[in-house]
Predict the structure.
Amino acid sequence: MPISTSDEGLKRVIGVQGLALSIVNMVIGSGIFVLPAIIGMAMGAFGIFGYIFCSIMMAAIMLCYAEVGSKITTSGGSYAYVEKAFGNFPGFIINWLFFFGWGILASAAMMNIIADSLALLWPSLLNPFIRGILFFFLMGIMVVINIIGTKQANIFVKSISILKLFPIIGIIIFGFSHIKIDNLHWEKVPSLKTFSDTTLILFFAFAGFEASLGVSGEFKNPKKTVPLGIFLGGAIVLIVYLLLQTVTQGILGADIVAHKNAPLAAVAEKIIGPAGTTLLLFTAALSCFGGVSADVMATPRSLFACANDGMFPKFLGKVHSKFATPYLAIITYASLIFIFSVSGGFKQLAILASAALLLVYLSVILATIKLRRDKEDELEKTFKVPGGLIVPFIGMASILWLLTSLNKWEILSTIIFITTICLVYFVMKWMRNN
């Protein structure tokens, strides 16, 4: 069967399995290697209910993405959805919030986690120069693979997703025989504040799936691929998180505090001995590498889509004549990740990434509601979330609740960033008109 091509000149090569594994790869990243300790220390065995509650919130957001993603089949993901519903200006803001406020900063952080993990085995990686060489080498691999072709990049992401899940699944399977039932009992229910603070952490542990939708212009049969891929990927993530938390809490119990920086490494050591620690360090590095690889595959499509709409420099919209990939957008995005990785400047802006992602989610939910009113898609067979506005309302209420937890400095930083984006938009518009 020949490979179809989108109106943008990109090849549609990603199916349900590819999208689902990309979501698993993006969501199950570096956080999973410390998350069980954070939840266990805060809520003990009751933390399982935090996962369940958080999964309900994320399910509402994912369902909205599934609905709007089955209607909008061009590249850009969150940007494309908001731009279609509300126009260029809101789309421009969302694209900046997503690709810079979340994508670049989060990927730069994961690159440093790779170096930090491997530095425990090779201390020379603490040297900034050697660290920079490692970053350049790894980013170069990602750029070459993604330029050669989306199909090849997707296979690469699939492979990393499967490889990094093996040690995690191994801990789950072999760890059940080491569980002590007493460690799974809770003496009291945590306070509402403790529960809400922990849920905020969990919320971002589930975040990242939306980056996989940046390659929406390269999905095979997007009306089917988007909802099924999101459902399958989200279900796998939830099951892995629940089982991993149960095993970690059941094995370590109150001792989880002593292993707060590397709880899974401690569990692996109890299961297979000292070699377990080394294995988990490599797994943590591989997991972060996979997360950044998936980001480099997906997010440049937002730059590509925005360039085609005249919102970003035109060169970012160029497609490689041989490989049919947005190669200049890929190189530009990877270069920005490299710069922030070696500079360390992302640490001061990391808190902005959290608020940025919440605003992106809120905008996509509003876009879902807006596009429901459009008559042009009524005859097309696209996915629609059942229950009217119940699911979008749950998503919006959850996001607004989490936004209230931001302090004054975080709110001010977000306002300043958005104001700067608005100024950039109007300056660019003035320059084009003149």
About this structure: The chain has one domain: 16-433. The chain has a mean pLDDT of 78. Residues 88-119 form the longest helix (32 residues).
